[in-house]
Here is the input.
Amino acid sequence: MDFQESEFFIFKMKEALETIIIDVRDTAPGLENRAAFEAYKATIQGPNGSLTAVMKSMGKLLREEKPAMGKLINEAKAEINEALSQALATIEAAELTAKLGSAIDPSLPSVEGDRGTLHPIAQVREEMVALFQRIGFSVAEATEVETEYFCFDALNIPKDHPARDMQDSYYLPNELKMQNVPKHKEEQYLLRTHSSTVQIRTMLQKNPPIRIIAPGRCFRRDTPDATHSANFHQIEGLYVDQDVSLTDLKATLDYFVKTIFGPKAKTRLRPSFFPFTEPSFEMDFFSPDLGKLSNKWLEIMGCGMVDPEVFKAVGIDPQAYTGFAFGMGIERIAMILQGVDDIRYYYQNDLRFLKQFA
Ligand code: DAH
Here is the structure.
């Protein structure tokens, strides 16, 4: 064979390869089932296939022409195989779908949905509840709709007491019949202004020793601003037993503050007044690790020793038992912990805010 003949073969072989590639690209994606696929594949790569024929004609080339042609054939083969295996994958997926009767491919990884998270107030509530549970307090609850008796009278806040003005509430129409809210004579229903109602309801149900923590929603007719919201949350604590002392109160609250704000936090009790505790205190704390709020005394709760008048209202003998109580706003603690400077952010349901605490 001379050079010209060889050149002619090379030309013909290149032409044949191009034709095969174009044909495969056109035909393979339209093959509908495995039988059609195998039949088509045989026309290319089978013993009498078009690609096989091109490979066989290598023998007609001059030796020095072979390597270059071999390379071209390999490249063409790779391209053909790629198109064929894509077509086969499509056919296999269709077979699986047919077998399952739907277009779901269960072998695919599942799509990760948006996961919800606890609201920042709920996160702080859980943390607070958990740390009191660790020292033996259990969770108590009561209704948000209350009567004046449980919200005020039984807590030693008589009708004309100024504390009732400070905790002005939302009163419900008298004729409303609420289920499970015992009707007290001539009483109006209202939304509870503080969680201290749970003290009364618990002491009426159980005998001492009592050690409860009561997280819950409270309501006041406050004009909303950066630190006031008409709807907010408190945590109430109550411990009643023989010989409960002020030292127990101080130790319990020290533990609370150091656990939640860090071991360097310091506490102090400042004399104050609440009708249902005697003596009464405001508890402040101070921490070097609080960013902008570091090294300032911050007031976080009211507390004191249960007033004997309260014990009398629930039929507990004040000679036999003593107790301490405390109550604090969850939002206040959350704002300090989370560095939030406006309480209203918690209620706007803005995901850009809420997601920062996820
Ligand atoms: N209930 C009070 C309030 O909302 C807070 C409080 C003060 C609760 C003293 C207590 C306590 O249990 O002993 O302002």
Q: What stands out?
A: The mean pLDDT is 90.
